[in-house]
Design brief:
47% strand, seven-stranded mixed beta sheet, five-stranded antiparallel beta sheet, Jelly Rolls, 3 helices
């Protein structure tokens, strides 16, 4: 049997330039608010959830414990984008593209594999087809509100085992 290839992946700070291929960062805006007064600044339309068939739905995700920073799976959704809005805790979020994002049979592009630190102050909205995995808490646990198309978890979920399919394991490196 061929030796398992371990990819060491440095965790990046979340910034627009680096994250753009995977989706959008949602958070404080650098433009004039639509509505501004002593109590609020309101910014409508900061991002769109992309749906192909039906309504979107909110979900709640509790990552109940910190775990080893080893990513052995990826998942994607080919019919909708997916937003992750941190509710508590901080975490590492792993993303990747396919070699051809328009081809559903295209393999993972390991050159595009990245890990981002989510400190809880901003959210992310993944593009359709972006590979990702359950966040890795850097705090004791982390919770998220998410948005994707109704029944995505039942009808539009592809999970791959990186060891089985690619003989790869991804070790996340969090520099202090």
């Amino acid at each position: 049997m061929e030796k398992l290839k371990v990819i060491e992946l440095k965790v990046n700070q979340l910034d627009k330039k680096t994250f753009t291929p995977y989706g959008e960062i949602l958070g404080p805006q650098k433009v004039k608010p639509y509505l501004e007064n002593d109590d609020i600044d309101f910014y409508p339309g900061i991002s769109n959830i992309e749906l192909t068939k039906q309504n979107g739905t909110f979900f709640w995700l509790d990552v109940k414990r910190s775990r080893q920073f080893i990513c052995e799976n990826l998942e994607r959704h080919l019919n909708c984008s997916e937003a992750f809005i941190p509710f508590s805790g901080s975490s590492i979020f792993v993303v990747a593209l396919s070699e051809n994002m328009k081809d559903p049979k295209s393999p993972v592009d390991f050159n595009s594999l990245k890990a981002f630190f989510l400190d809880g102050s901003r959210a992310v909205n993944l593009k359709i087809g972006t590979w990702h995995w359950i966040p890795f808490p850097t705090s004791e646990k982390a919770s998220f509100i998410g948005i994707f198309e109704n029944d995505t978890h039942k009808t539009n979920l592809e999970i791959i085992d990186l060891k089985k399919n690619y003989n790869v394991s991804v070790k996340l490196i969090l520099e202090k």
